[in-house]
């Protein structure tokens, strides 16, 4: 097997790879299974071995090796930057050079060295003094002379078991926003609650199975601003349940913070309103704190269930059963993207500022409702804020009685 001693220097990423992760994951590159030797990347001691063109590998260093998508994304960025070169400056944080640099590296990693070379040359046209890219150009040329990368195999779209519903997800997220949603009915609800007598909830039924309802004008602009302001200083990268633990995951990209009802009268009032509208008991430990979530550009939450699907889930630490229902409040509008998509039920709800979306996660017999698989679509422009309130089974025994009928 030919061994290359070159090192191609990756453009620096905004989040540097932590040192303790370097070289820890992969075997030496030449041992990597599944990499045709002709396309073997030069020895990159710091880089985990990515199966070329196969998308996400089991890496854990933050690198997913998804060059299929990084190339598509960066191609778009490069062509937009080329069109408007010099005329705009994204807060000084991005440039044509950045995009070219990363795109060249992605092509190199995907085995397409001639593309990597021509993009790096274009880079040098704008920034001729860059030593790293100049060295890379020399190495790409050498690799091409040696006959490496002559025929890069087409990149495969990454496919992991978690993404089986990927096609439906992408299609739902790309549906134009203006489409009529074919909702079922509208009503003013008081639920015999004194809180709602003067100001009934404006309920719109979205689906019966799974049961999904949208409450318009559920909060005011002022309340939304207060909640975002309270959460702002506490926002941290969101985590997901993974086995018995909670951890960061590439399929959930957002920041979030938890707000207790004692944080502010607005949070307490919101709890009371949710209790009145849903008729459910939210007193501790029957509901979780309010989770405020902020998605930036490209932020998303890929298809998932809110309820636990394993008895080991950290959700059960509350000892109040599974998450029987979700109520999610849209705290902001979004310029483009960001709908909430129900994958199996085949509909998506566009973000409507101040509205709340309610659904039952469990069926009346306590089983998870498989039809509730849902996702937060990628934010394409602007940013998105939501607040989640997850209500648990315990405490609801008389409010949502069980049923022996498996269809309920
Ligand atoms: O952001 C959305 O639209 C969905 C969020 C969601 O499903 C969640 O946070 O569990
Ligand atoms: Fe969710």
TrEMBL record:
SMART domains: P4Hc
Gene that produces this protein: P4HA3
Organism of provenance: Cyanistes caeruleus
Cofactors demanded by this protein: L-ascorbate
Region (Disordered): 15-34
Endoplasmic reticulum in keyword set: yes
A GO term for molecular function: L-ascorbic acid binding
Family matches, as InterPro entries: Oxoglu/Fe-dep_dioxygenase_dom, P4HA-like, Pro_4_hyd_alph, Pro_4_hyd_alph_FE2OG_OXY, TPR-like_helical_dom_sf, TPR_P4H
Keyword line: Dioxygenase, Endoplasmic reticulum, Glycoprotein, Iron, Metal-binding, Oxidoreductase, Vitamin C
Name of the protein this chain belongs to: Prolyl 4-hydroxylase subunit alpha 3
All residue ranges annotated as the Fe2OG dioxygenase domain in the record: 286-393
Extent of Basic and acidic residues compositional bias: 21-30
One GO cellular component term: endoplasmic reticulum
Domain of life: Eukaryota
Pfam families with a match to the protein in the record: 2OG-FeII_Oxy_3, TPR_P4H
């Amino acid at each position: 097997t030919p061994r290359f001693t070159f090192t191609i220097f990756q453009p620096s990423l905004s989040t540097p790879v932590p040192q303790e992760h370097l070289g820890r994951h992969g075997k030496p590159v030449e041992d990597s299974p599944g990499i045709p030797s002709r396309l073997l990347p030069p020895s990159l001691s710091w880089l985990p071995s990515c199966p070329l063109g196969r998308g996400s590998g089991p890496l854990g260093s933050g690198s997913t090796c998804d060059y299929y998508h990084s190339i598509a994304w960066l191609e778009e960025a490069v062509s937009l930057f080329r069109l408007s070169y010099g005329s705009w400056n994204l807060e000084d944080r991005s440039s044509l050079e950045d995009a070219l640099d990363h795109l060249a590296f992605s092509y190199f990693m995907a085995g397409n060295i001639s593309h990597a070379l021509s993009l790096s040359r274009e880079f040098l046209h704008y920034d001729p003094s860059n030593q790293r890219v100049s060295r890379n150009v020399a190495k790409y040329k050498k690799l091409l002379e040696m006959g490496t990368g002559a025929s890069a195999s087409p990149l495969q779209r990454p496919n992991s078991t978690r993404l089986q519903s990927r096609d439906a997800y992408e299609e739902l997220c790309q549906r134009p926003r203006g489409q009529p949603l074919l909702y079922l009915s509208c009503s003013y609800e008081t639920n015999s609650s004194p809180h709602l007598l003067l100001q009934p909830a404006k309920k719109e039924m979205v689906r019966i199975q799974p049961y999904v309802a949208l409450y318009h004008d559920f909060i005011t602009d002022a309340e939304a601003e207060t909640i975002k302001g309270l959460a702002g200083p506490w926002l941290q990268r969101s985590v997901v349940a993974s086995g018995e633990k909670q951890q960061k995951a590439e399929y959930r990209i957002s920041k979030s913070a938890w707000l207790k009802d004692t944080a502010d009268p607005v949070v307490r009032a919101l709890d009371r309103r949710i209790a009145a509208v849903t008729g459910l008991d939210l007193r501790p430990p029957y509901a979780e704190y309010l989770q405020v979530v902020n998605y930036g550009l490209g932020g998303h939450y890929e298809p998932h269930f809110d309820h636990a699907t394993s008895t080991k889930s950290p959700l059960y630490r509350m000892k109040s059963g599974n998450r029987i229902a979700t109520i999610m409040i849209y705290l902001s509008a979004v310029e483009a993207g960001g709908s909430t998509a129900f994958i199996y039920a085949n509909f998506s709800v566009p973000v409507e500022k101040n509205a709340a979306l309610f659904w039952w996660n469990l069926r009346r017999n306590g089983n998870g409702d498989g039809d509730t698989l849902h996702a937060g679509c990628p934010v394409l422009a602007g940013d998105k804020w939501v607040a989640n309130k997850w209500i648990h089974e315990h405490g609801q025994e008389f409010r949502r009685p069980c049923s022996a009928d498996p269809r309920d």
